[in-house]
């Protein structure tokens, strides 16, 4: 519910450049709400979603947003229970995204398979 409110504001906000939602337990649903906002927002450059338990489902939502977002340069997905499947989704998005320069996937258990996708 809280993540939805933030996401709704992000869809129309034209001044915020950095958003820290670290350790807020937004889960996969909250990540999808934020991802939806990222598809519309043109000003946010830094997003910290670390320690939110978004899992592969949330990672897929974020990955879909990364395919069309043109402003985000830094994304923290540290410690989010993202596995190889979620990492592959993010990796596919990176092939299309031209603005992201910093990505933190630490402590996620992406394994060799996920790491190969990112590399």
Description:
- This protein is α/β, with parallel strands linked by helices and 119 residues long.
- It has helices spanning 2-12, 27-38, 55-66, 84-96, 111-118, and strands at 18-20, 46-48, 74-76, 102-104.
- Strands 1-2-3-4 form a four-stranded parallel beta sheet, with no helix packed on it.
- Helix 3 (55-66) links the parallel strand 2 (46-48) and strand 3.
- The protein is globular and about 40 Å long.
- The chain starts with a helix and ends with a helix.
Structural key phrases:
5 helices; alpha/beta; 4 strands; 119 residues; four-stranded parallel β-sheet
Secondary structure: elements and pairs:
Blueprint: H1 2-12, E1 18-20, H2 27-38, E2 46-48, H3 55-66, E3 74-76, H4 84-96, E4 102-104, H5 111-118
Parallel strand pairs: 1-2, 2-3, 3-4
Helix pairs in contact: 1-2, 2-3, 3-4, 4-5
- Helix percent band: 40-55%
Strand fraction: 5-15%
* Uncertain stretches: none
**Count of discrete alpha- or pi-helical segments spanning 4 or more residues:** 5
Q: What is the general shape?
A: globular
Mean pLDDT: 97
Order of helices and strands: HEHEHEHEH
Query: Mind describing the biggest β-sheet?
Result: 4 strands, parallel
How are the strands of the largest sheet arranged? 1-2-3-4
A few lines on this structure:
Helix content is 47%, strand content 10%. The protein has helices at residues 2-12, 27-38, 55-66, 84-96, 111-118; strands at residues 18-20, 46-48, 74-76, 102-104.
